[in-house]
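[Discussion] Sanity-checking designs against the backbone

I'm trying to build intuition for which residues belong where. Below is a structure token string of 376 positions. I'd appreciate it if someone posts a full sequence so I can compare it with mine line by line.
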């Protein structure tokens, strides 16, 4: 099937240009159908925990497939903030409590490291960059025998700068530290192989390029590492047998399952599976290639219109979204919305974030409107 033939799966595309995939992807029929499986079961069976649990396991399996991990290495949580809090709650690690991260993390990540630093359980330091691109060499002189973790995003939420994950993993490992990746702005746009990249931990939610809805996120923890960690942030689903109902003892499940907490976000997990399986059916290689084309197209066309690009100018160093510097980003977002175009404002930039179903002419129209709004 051609990529454009999938457009009919997204009803809103007949009415709007949707370039808000860095924030919330458009509703699709596969996601609606997956959610309807949950609603149908609830309506007709009434109460069916086994069905829920099987649905959540299937969602974990789809996430595992997307990142080339084993399903035992995936936990289900409600958001990336929860995933990072769970990891932080395992600190310190054999006396190591230093975390090195970047100023460009989404606050879901930075805020958690700061909070645990205040409690004395973590000691966070931030590296900086003028253009959003970070080099693993920036860790030299900072990373040492006290460093537990390097915490890095794959693609930045603000200007879409893309980091070299393999280089960060290598540097962390040379110093006996681990690496955690926030892949929220990249997963669904490119193939991520945690084994080849040697990533120890990774998290993402589903409402952006993974086509799902809010309420669920997945945490990958390499099996050997997971089993050395005991999260203080826990719950009955993190136990060996949640249905044993023993309130007086502490035990942790095998693998990453120990990072589960309470009753999982079941409906959101059904939606997540619908979105992830849809992407896997389309094919991540094709999606990645198409997004690269659209990303290059956006850069070229934005420059032609004299717009100031805040993203890296080399498409290989950026994610799907392109950030255009504007004075009043919310005004531009509203102007686009008045013309049936969805863009996403952050601070002083408007982000145009295509997905595999986007057409070049949609990007051109959005860029014309951005240029027009700046003249108003
Ligand atoms: C890179 C990145 N990480 C995390 C988040 C959000 O995390 P949470 O699931 O905690 O809301 C976002 C955006 O909403 C993001 O862009």
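Best answer:
Here's mine. Compare freely.
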């Amino acid at each position: 099937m051609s990529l454009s033939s999938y457009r009919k799966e997204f009803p809103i595309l007949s009415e709007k240009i949707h370039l808000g995939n860095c924030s919330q992807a458009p509703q699709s029929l596969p996601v609606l159908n997956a959610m309807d499986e949950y609603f149908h079961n609830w309506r007709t069976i009434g109460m069916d925990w086994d069905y829920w649990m099987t649905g959540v396991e299937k969602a974990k399996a789809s996430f595992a497939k997307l990142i080339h991990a084993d399903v035992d290495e995936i936990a289900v949580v409600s958001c990336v903030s929860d995933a990072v809090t769970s990891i932080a709650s395992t600190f310190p690690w054999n006396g190591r409590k230093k975390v090195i991260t970047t100023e460009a993390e989404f606050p879901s990540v930075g805020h958690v490291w700061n909070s645990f630093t205040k409690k004395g359980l973590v000691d966070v330091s931030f590296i900086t960059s003028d253009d959003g691109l970070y080099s693993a060499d920036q860790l030299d002189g900072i990373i040492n025998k006290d460093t537990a973790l390097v915490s890095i995003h794959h693609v930045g939420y603000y200007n879409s700068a893309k980091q070299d994950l393999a280089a960060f993993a290598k540097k962390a490992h040379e110093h006996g530290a681990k690496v955690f990746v926030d892949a929220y702005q990249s997963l669904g746009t490119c193939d991520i192989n945690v084994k080849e990249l040697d990533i120890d931990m990774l998290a993402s939610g589903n409402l952006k390029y993974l086509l799902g809805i809010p309420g669920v996120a997945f945490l990958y923890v390499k099996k050997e590492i997971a089993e050395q960690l005991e999260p203080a942030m826990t719950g009955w689903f993190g136990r060996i047998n949640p249905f044993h109902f023993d309130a007086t003892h502490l035990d942790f499940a095998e693998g990453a399952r120990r990072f589960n907490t309470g009753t999982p976000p079941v409906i959101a997990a059904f939606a997540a599976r619908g979105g992830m399986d849809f992407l896997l059916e389309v094919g991540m290689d094709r999606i990645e290639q198409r997004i690269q084309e659209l990303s290059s197209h956006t850069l070229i066309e934005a420059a032609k219109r004299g717009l100031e690009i805040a993203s890296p100018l080399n498409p290989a160093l950026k994610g799907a979204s392109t950030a255009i510097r504007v004075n009043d980003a919310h005004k531009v977002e509203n102007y686009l919305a008045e013309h049936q175009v969805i863009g996403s404002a952050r601070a002083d930039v408007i982000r145009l974030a295509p997905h595999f179903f986007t057409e070049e002419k949609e990007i051109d129209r959005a860029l014309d409107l951005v240029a027009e709004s700046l003249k108003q």
